[in-house]
Specification:
The complex is a heterodimer of chains A (about 120) and B (about 375).
Chain A: E1 2-4, E2 9-14, E3 17-22, H1 24-30, E4 33-37, E5 44-45, E6 50-56, E7 60-64, E8 69-74, H2 76-80, H3 83-87, E9 96-100, H4 112-119
Antiparallel strand pairs in A: 1-2, 2-3, 3-9, 4-6, 5-8, 6-7, 8-9
Chain B: H1 13-18, E1 22-26, E2 29-34, H2 39-48, E3 50-54, E4 59-65, H3 70-78, E5 93-99, E6 105-113, E7 118-122, H4 127-138, E8 142-146, E9 150-156, H5 160-167, E10 179-184, E11 187-192, E12 201-207, H6 208-220, E13 224-227, H7 229-238, H8 280-289, E14 293-300, E15 311-313, E16 321-331, E17 336-344, E18 353-358, E19 361-368
The chains are: A alpha+beta (about 120), B alpha+beta (about 375).
Chain lengths: ~120, ~375
């Protein structure tokens, strides 16, 4: 199940695990990324809290945790090579895997059609 | 009415749109921050080939002595800048600073001796204030005209000479800070060998109505790529060059800003034309005795950029603050974060390690020599 947030994150939900990244639209808007800071595995985050930080050549932006949950895996590849987020934001450029506190919370997120409408 | 409709446009605005630029408001103008290639590629292309920048938002001012003697215009300018203008030869350009009574910097600028007049380029955000300042101070002696009828572009990078040489062969004879009139594609241009990237290159003033065709021709060259304000900033930061509003402002003196080199001997204590500019007592005093803070280069450890506004301390806890970052980001050619900032003079020693407070974490930062990249200008 693919879901989106209004903060331009995508979630690929498989059971109670959501793989989270930023959308192609977000990656285009940010421009070339030069730095990614990911959360620690094992940490619990509340929906809307800061989970990661990305920096483009010009500016820093926060990536918010899309739902309540625990970080179970992070993508070290984007820390080593932040350009992966620009080249494949909704694939190899994923950020972290989140074990959802409540699977049903995901129902309230946007589906692909609704997200596409949001970004025009 | 939306916000962007109130923004001014440069003569190259339609060219930027046709090139797919992302436009942002900057100093009252709708300017390209980047083109589809993106900031990183634009930056690296400028260092390896040639980049074309639209800097038409900057102020181009022509100053003529009412007496008809250009030396009178030089003398008038010397009452506003701590720089040797009278000694600037015809066809030569020099970096200068408008100072205030407290020794602070009102703007930084370029002054070129064009024989029968001086041609001055000032920052976009300051140009109206600069014009009023000059008019009030030396308008009785000089006729001062702002040239909104001209575009200004910069062609920068190791291929700039070869590219411009294809239009105008004399360019190889110019050295750094030379200024010449020239004909580019039948346009009456003023070319200086200078720039804001640390690379060899040229700044070209073009009549507004011919700017589009001249730039299209330059961009047709396979070595030339259009470059936006994003890469302009990362290039100047790696080159260790000041940005007005970041490194220098009305509260910063030239000595604090490590710009002593811009003040020639003849304007210093004991010089033939010592002082005689606003804030001379403060600035000349600091030249002899030093200032309490100084602009330095900063190399953060790791990959995280340290941005302007970040506080620098001698201890990781951030209790003993000794400075502030004024500009910082990622240097694509350095392949790491670079920054500039002010620290207390006792800390302003190459190799000193400080701590930057970035999002609550203390990042180690080392004071480093400027520029971060080797300048390739043709002196």
């Amino acid at each position: 199940m693919l879901k989106f947030t209004e903060e331009h994150e995508w979630l690929q939900i498989d059971g109670d695990i959501a793989t989270v990244g930023i959308t192609t639209h977000a990656a285009e808007q940010l421009g070339d990324l030069v730095f990614v800071e990911l959360p620690e595995v094992g940490g619990t985050h509340a929906k809307g809290g800061d989970a990661a930080t990305v920096e483009s050549v010009k500016a820093a932006s926060d990536v918010f945790c899309p739902l309540d949950g625990e970080i179970v895996e992070i993508n070290e590849a984007i820390v080593t090579d932040p350009s992966l987020v620009n080249s494949d934001p909704q694939g190899a450029g994923w950020f972290f895997k989140l074990k959802l506190a409540n699977r049903s919370d995901a129902d309230a997120l946007l589906d692909e059609a609704a997200y596409k409408e949001l970004v025009g | 009415m939306d916000e962007t409709s109130e923004l001014k446009k440069t003569p190259l605005h339609t060219l930027h749109l046709s090139l797919g630029a992302r436009m942002v408001p900057f100093a009252g103008y709708d300017m390209p921050v980047q083109y589809p290639a993106g900031v990183l590629k634009e930056h690296l292309h400028t260092r390896s080939q040639a980049g074309l920048f639209d800097v038409s938002h900057m102020g181009q001012i022509v100053l003529r002595a009412r007496s008809g003697d250009n030396a009178d215009a030089a003398r008038a300018l010397e009452t506003l800048v701590p720089v040797d203008v009278l000694g600037l030869g015809e066809g030569r350009q020099r970096y200068a600073l408008f100072t205030n009574d407290r020794g602070g910097i009102l703007d930084d600028l370029m002054i070129a001796n064009r024989g029968d007049h001086f041609y001055i380029v000032v920052n976009a955000a300051c140009k109206d204030a600069d014009f009023a300042h000059m008019q009030a101070a030396i308008g009785d002696r000089c006729e001062i005209k702002m040239h909104d009828d001209r575009a200004l572009v910069a062609l920068q990078g190791p291929r700039a000479e070869a590219v411009l040489g294809e239009f105008w062969s004399d360019v190889t004879e110019m050295r750094f800070m030379d200024v010449r009139a020239c004909d580019l594609h039948d346009a009456d241009c003023i070319v200086s060998r200078s720039g804001y990237t640390g690379e060899d290159g040229f700044e070209i003033s073009i009549p507004a109505d011919q700017a589009h065709i001249v730039c299209s021709r330059l961009l047709d060259h396979p070595d030339v790529m259009p470059i936006g304000l994003g890469a302009r900033d990362s290039l100047r930061l790696e080159a260790g060059l000041c940005l007005y509003g970041n490194e220098i402002d009305a509260q910063t003196t030239p000595v604090e800003a490590a710009l002593e080199w811009a003040i020639q001997k003849v304007r210093r204590k004991g010089g033939e034309r010592a002082g005689g500019f606003p804030g001379a007592d403060v600035i000349l005093g600091q030249l002899e005795n030093g200032a309490t803070r100084r602009r330095v280069g900063l190399r953060p450890e790791g990959r995280a950029p340290v941005r302007g506004g970040v506080v620098l301390s001698t201890d990781p806890a951030g209790e003993n603050a000794v400075g502030t970052v004024t500009s910082g980001g990622f240097g694509p050619s350095v392949e790491g974060p670079v920054a500039m900032g002010y620290v207390t003079t006792d800390q302003a020693v190459i190799g000193t390690q400080l701590h930057a407070d970035v999002r609550g974490k203390a990042l180690p930062v080392t004071i480093a020599p400027l520029p971060f990249v080797k300048s390739t200008v043709k002196r």
